[in-house]
Specification:
Number of strands: 5
Strand content: 5-15%
Shape: elongated
Distance between the termini: 59 Å
Strand order of the largest sheet: 2-1-3-4-5
Largest sheet: 5 strands, parallel
Structural class: alpha/beta
Order of helices and strands: EHEHEHEHEHHHHHH
Number of helices: 10
């Protein structure tokens, strides 16, 4: 008995790349429901077709990570897989935080692309070999003390406030946090002020101590 074809929505702002990907997918037995060239188009197509997989580039208009976050949030039955030229750590980790199931580089052998998508539907996380090593390096490096999420103080924070404080605690600047979370620096500062007020501390250093249970 043959396997059901995978229904795919794909988005990439390079027309030639879309053609190449589509051909590889169709040869592997996938059905491409729609193609887009931006984050907004990716979200619209995914919402319309509710595919098995949304295959997204990162550096396209509107940013593929933004699309990944929205699709993962609104369509839990769709596996989001990034297909990108970027081997940057920030793009890898931001994609996974946004809800992507996998992260493949564009030099992935087209002959195995469909197998990688099928593994995502099976609950696995397809990752290019180079990116697996980056994740291993991250976990092997000396760890920054983690925040204690189950403390009484921590329960007062919203999910977004947690994201902001964790990134600041990892050493990112306000501007870097803003860029990572697609916020304005002013909004990041507002979140920090709210955290300080909720934790009843005067500065970030004191907030970090509270959140780390020190």
């Amino acid at each position: 008995m043959s396997e059901e074809p995978i229904r795919v929505v794909m988005a990439d702002d390079h027309a030639r790349m879309r053609t190449r990907i589509r051909e590889a997918l169709e040869v592997g037995g996938c059905v491409v429901c729609g193609e887009g060239a931006s984050a907004d188009e990716a979200v619209a197509l995914a919402t319309e077709h509710r595919p098995d997989v949304a295959l997204l580039d990162i550096h396209m208009p509107g940013n593929g990570i933004t699309a990944a976050r929205e699709i993962a949030r609104t369509l839990p039955g769709t596996a989001v897989v990034m297909l990108t030229a970027s081997a940057e750590d920030a793009d890898l980790f931001d994609s996974l935080r946004a809800g992507a199931s996998g992260y493949l580089l564009k030099d992935t052998d087209p002959a195995v692309l469909v197998d990688e998508l099928r593994s995502a539907l099976g609950g696995e996380s397809p990752l290019s070999r180079r990116m697996v090593s980056r994740i291993m390096e991250e976990f092997r490096s000396p760890a920054t003390p983690r925040f204690v999420r189950r403390s009484r103080a921590a329960a007062r924070l919203s999910g977004r406030e947690w994201e902001v404080m964790e990134l600041l605690g990892d050493g990112l600047s306000t501007d870097e946090v803003a860029q990572r979370l697609f916020l304005s620096p002013t909004t990041v500062r507002v979140h920090v002020s709210s955290v300080l007020r909720k934790l009843r501390v005067k500065d970030r250093a004191s907030a970090f101590k509270v959140l780390r249970g020190e």
